[in-house]
Design brief:
The complex is a heterodimer of chains A (239) and B (100). Chain A has 239 residues and is mainly α. Chain A folds into two domains: 163 residues, no CATH class; 58 residues, no CATH class. Chain A contains 14 helices and no strands. Chain B is extended, with a radius of gyration of 20 Å. In chain B, strand 1 and strand 2 form a beta hairpin. Chain B starts with a helix and ends with a helix. Chain B is built from four helices and two strands; from the N terminus they run ααββαα. Chain B is mainly alpha-helical. A two-stranded antiparallel ribbon of chain B has the order 1-2. Chain B has one domain. Helix content of chain B is 72%, strand content 4%. The chains are: A mainly alpha (239), B mainly alpha (100).
């Protein structure tokens, strides 16, 4: 099968992150079966929603007897970080027609964002982005099916210890994607602020600590940017 | 879980992601916006990495009993020292396995 070189690059760059996507998806499938949910609805949920944290949270809330509106509200809050992801990619996607932008939005996720956000806009971005996003989506759906199968066959859940061990892959991959971007003092300040802040408010409900930390870090970085001579000069040259 | 819940979640998730893409052509791309974009990725990725690394079993673990912490630090130091990405990741994995 002939693959566009940019698509191939997208697949290769995203491949290591499947080690974190598949076990999480399998946990969702297995947990759903353990809670007595229909396998088909679980699969449908992964195919149509494709939002790991929100899906796992929904399962927990269903088990606790939460009403539909509260689960939807939680979905909105927990997915609000995607709004930021999408905003930061608008310069990359503006030239594409509506249906392509819609497809790109559908497959946007944490792992693919980490990979695609370091790509420059322009020729080849669409192929790279869609390869990364569609592979993540297919892995999420496949992982859910795998978890369902394991839960149905072995009547048990996937060991959560396995999931904990695989976090290291995500951490190291995200560091390798982020570290090259730390080129100015304000970038470092942004990363350090986000780290310190999330350490203090990680327990806030519905992932709101994550959002707050990111906003705080962005605000402080923007303030610091004004006092950074090298970056100021760089921007003046660009303008 | 029913079809209405799945439909509602799917719509909310999609529109959260799609709204900025739908408005992409209307947004003005000033240099201020470009730098904001770079900070969004750094801030979000840092927060996700920090939360995954530091929060283990529903508590903050800032000591060496948390093997992710020295592994992440080792990988970060290697990256900052401009060593290859592969070497940094492998060293991070090695530190993780040794500290586990």
């Amino acid at each position: 099968m002939h693959l566009h070189p940019d698509s191939r690059r997208g697949l290769i760059d995203t491949a290591p992150l499947l080690l974190t996507i598949v076990p999480l998806a399998a946990s969702f499938g297995a947990l759903g079966i353990a809670q007595g949910e229909s396998p088909w609805l679980l699969i449908l949920c992964s195919v149509a929603v494709f939002a790991g944290s929100a899906q796992l949270l929904a399962l927990g809330m269903l088990a606790a007897g939460a009403p539909l509106w509260l689960i939807l509200l939680a979905t909105l809050v927990i997915n609000s970080r995607h709004l930021f992801y999408a905003f930061s990619l608008t310069a990359h996607v503006q030239q594409y027609p509506v249906y392509q932008r819609a497809l790109m939005a559908f497959v946007l996720n944490d792992e693919s964002y980490a990979v695609v956000s370091r790509q420059p806009p322009g020729h080849g971005f669409l192929n790279y982005y869609l390869a990364s996003g569609l592979m993540a989506w297919a892995s999420w759906c496949g992982g859910t099916g795998l978890g369902i199968l394991i839960a149905l066959l072995f009547t048990g859940q996937l060991p959560t210890a396995l999931l904990g061990q695989l976090d290291i892959i995500m951490v190291l991959t995200f560091i390798s994607l982020m570290a090259p971007r730390l080129q100015h003092r304000s970038h470092w300040l942004c990363a350090i602020t986000a780290t310190v802040s999330i350490s203090l408010c990680w327990h806030w409900p519905l992932g709101s600590g994550l959002l707050f930390s990111a906003l705080l870090a962005i605000g402080i970085a923007l303030l610091a940017e004004g006092t950074e001579p090298a970056l100021k000069h760089e921007k003046e040259v660009c303008e | 879980m029913d079809i209405w819940l799945i439909g509602g979640m799917a719509l909310l998730t999609f529109y959260t992601r799609y709204l900025p893409f739908a408005l992409a052509r209307q947004l003005a791309f000033a240099s201020r916006w470009q730098s904001l974009s770079s900070y969004i990725s750094i801030a979000m990725l840092s927060a996700i990495v920090a939360r995954t690394t530091l929060v283990r079993e529903q508590s903050l673990q800032l000591d060496l009993s948390n093997p992710l912490l020295p592994a992440a630090l080792a990988a970060l130091v290697c990256h900052v020292s401009r060593l290859s990405a592969w070497f940094s990741t492998l060293l991070g994995l090695l530190v993780f396995l040794l500290c586990r």
